[in-house]
Design a protein that fits this description.
Blueprint (H helix, E strand, L loop, with lengths): L11 H10 L9 E6 L6 H13 L3 E7 L9 H9 L2 E8 L7 E8 L2 E14 L16 E5 L7 H14 L14 E7 L4 E12 L7 E6 L3 E10 L3 H7 L14 E3 L5 E3 L23 H26 L1
Parallel strand pairs: 1-2, 1-3, 6-7
Antiparallel strand pairs: 3-4, 4-5, 5-10, 7-8, 8-9, 8-10, 11-12
Length: about 325
C-alpha cells in the first residue's frame, strides 16, 4: 500500500518535475532509456552504442548491469522508465538461448504498450566504416522497403516503433541541404529486417536540382523477429488519441485531388433569372430598326386583341 501512496512535492523543483510529467496539450519529444541486461557484450553492446549515437541528445543510459527479463516480469523496466522519465526503451542482453538479443519498446501510462524482441544475425558498427560521418542533431530520413510492412500487425507496430526510436524534434519546414542522413529498413520474405544507414551527398549536375549520391556510413544490421508483445487495438487507439484542441476542424464541401489542389462546392438557393439586374452595356442596346419592329409587333398584338373582344361581344 505504501507504493500506491500519492507523494506530494516538498520543494519547488520537485513540484516542477511532477508538473512536467503530467499530461500536456503539446507533448515534448520523449527521451529513450538504454538498459544493459545481466550479460551484454559483442554485437549487442556495439548496436546499443550506435543507437545512442543516432539518438543523441534525447536519451538516458544506465551502464550498470540489470537482472531483468522484460517478457517475464516487466515491472523493473517500467519502474526505471518512470524514474528516468522516458517513454521509449532499448534493452540489450545475450544468453545461450537467445544470443545477441535487443528489445525495443515504449511506455504508456507507466506501463509497457508495445515490446518487440529482435535477434542480431549480422552487425557492422559505425566505427568499421572509414567514411565521413554526420552531425549529432541531424534528423534522419526513414525509408521502409517492401510490401510486407502492411501485412501483419506485428510488422506494422514494428515500423511504428522504429519511427518513434529514431524520431527527434518536429520540424515545420525542410531545407534540401539539411537532409544529410537516411536509414533504410527492408523486410525480406523470411521476415528478416535489414537496416542500412547512408550519408546523402549533393553533387553538381549542371542543373538546378543536384545529383544525389549515397555513401554507407553504418550501422549495418540484419535482425530477426523473435518475441512480440503488442497492445490491443482499444489500448493502442487510446494511446494515439489527440485532445480536441489539437484536432483539425473538418471543413465542409472541400475536396482535394491527387495533385493537392483544393476544390470547393458552393450551395446557392433558387434564383429568379428574370429579376437579375444585368449590367447595361452598349453592345446589348437595341438598334433603331429593332425598336421599330418591336413597336410594330406591339401594335399588331393590340389590334388582334381588340378584334377578338368585338367578336366575343357580338
Amino acid at each position: 500500500m505504501s507504493l500506491m501512496r500519492i507523494r506530494k512535492p516538498k520543494t519547488r523543483k520537485g513540484k516542477q518535475v511532477l508538473m512536467a510529467r503530467e499530461p500536456q496539450l503539446v507533448e515534448p519529444t520523449r527521451n529513450m532509456l538504454f538498459v544493459d541486461g545481466r550479460k551484454c557484450g559483442g554485437d549487442v553492446k556495439s548496436c546499443m552504442k550506435d543507437f545512442q549515437q543516432l539518438r543523441k541528445p534525447l536519451l538516458k543510459v544506465l551502464n550498470r548491469k540489470n537482472d531483468i527479463t522484460p517478457f517475464d516480469d516487466p515491472s523493473s523496466l517500467e519502474f526505471l522508465t518512470m524514474k528516468n522519465d522516458c517513454a521509449l526503451f532499448a534493452f540489450g542482453s545475450t544468453s545461450k538461448k537467445r544470443p545477441n538479443n535487443l528489445v525495443l519498446g515504449r511506455i504508456f501510462e507507466n506501463e509497457i504498450l508495445d515490446m518487440i524482441e529482435l535477434g542480431i544475425k549480422q552487425y557492422n558498427a559505425m566505427s568499421e566504416y572509414k567514411t565521413e560521418k554526420i552531425g549529432t542533431n541531424v534528423k534522419p530520413c526513414l525509408i521502409f522497403n517492401g510490401p510486407r510492412w502492411n501485412q501483419t500487425d506485428e510488422l506494422r507496430r514494428l515500423r511504428n516503433l522504429l519511427i518513434d526510436t529514431f524520431q527527434k524534434d518536429k520540424v515545420e519546414a525542410i531545407r534540401l541541404q539539411g537532409i544529410e542522413h537516411v536509414i533504410s529498413f527492408t523486410c525480406t520474405e523470411d521476415l528478416s529486417i535489414m537496416m542500412r544507414s547512408y550519408k546523402i551527398m549533393l553533387k553538381k549536375s549542371g542543373q538546378r536540382t543536384p545529383r544525389i549520391e549515397l555513401a554507407e556510413i553504418g550501422p549495418s544490421a540484419d535482425f530477426s523477429i523473435r518475441r512480440t508483445k503488442i497492445a490491443s487495438e482499444d489500448l493502442y487507439k487510446q494511446a494515439r488519441k489527440q485532445p480536441k484542441q489539437l484536432q483539425a476542424k473538418k471543413k465542409k464541401n472541400l475536396t482535394y485531388d491527387e495533385m493537392g489542389n483544393t476544390h470547393g462546392r458552393v450551395h446557392l438557393g433558387k434564383q429568379n433569372v428574370t429579376k437579375i439586374q444585368t449590367r447595361r452595356v452598349k453592345g446589348l442596346k437595341k438598334t433603331p430598326e429593332e425598336k421599330r419592329e418591336g413597336r410594330q409587333k406591339k401594335k399588331e398584338l393590340l389590334k388582334t386583341a381588340a378584334r377578338d373582344l368585338l367578336i366575343n361581344s357580338e
